[in-house]
Amino acid sequence: MRLLLGGVFVWASTYKILHPAAFASVIANYQLLPDVLVNGYAVTLPWLELLLGFFLIFGLWLPGAVVLSNLLLVVFSGALVFNVARGLDIHCGCFTSDTIGNPKTTWYLVRNAVLITVAAYLLFKVVIRKKA
Fold it and tell me: Could you tell me which of 82, 114, 97, 93 has the C-alpha nearest to residue 19?
C-alpha cells in the first residue's frame, strides 16, 4: 500500500516540478488562495509530494509521511468538493496541468476517495495500531 501511494505521489509531482507556471495556473483556477501565494504553492507543493512519495516508497520517517499524505489527500479532495459546491468544474491538476477538454470532477473525487482509503489504511497500520 505504501509503495502504491508513494508511487502516486511521485508520479503526481513530476509534471508539476517540470512545469511550475502551468501548475500555478491550475492552482489559480481553484480560486482558493490569494494571488500572491499561488506561485509559492506551485513551486513548493510538488516537491513536498515528491519527498512524501520517496519517504513512503523507501519507508523513511513513515509515521510523519503517512500523516502528511493523509492530510494532503484530504485537503486536495476538500478543494475539489468546495469548488463543486460553488458550481465550478475545474481540472484537478493532479497529474498534469493540462486544462484542455472537459474536467472529470466526478472521476477526480472517486479516485481521491480510493487514495484516501489507501492512506487511511496506512494511517491505521503505521500510526494508530503501533501505539496500541
Answer: 97
Report the distance separating Cα 50 and Cα 16, nearest Å. Answer: 10
Instruction: Note the pLDDT of residue 100.
Output: 65
Q: How confident is the model at residue 93 (pLDDT cuts 50, 70, 90)?
A: confident
d(CA 26, CA 28): 5
The CA-to-CA distance between both ends of the chain, in Å, stands at 21
**46-75 pLDDT, tens per residue?**
999 999 999 999 999 999 999 999 999 999
Q: Is 22 exposed, middle or buried (0-12, 13-18, 19+ CB in 10 A)?
A: middle
Q: Residue 42: CB partners within 8 Å, gap ≥ 6?
A: 16, 20, 21, 23, 24, 27
Q: How far apart, in Å, are the Cα atoms of 90 and each of 5, 25, 41, 121, 129? A: 24, 11, 18, 29, 37
Q: At what angle do helices 62-85 and 2-18 cross, to 10 degrees?
A: 60
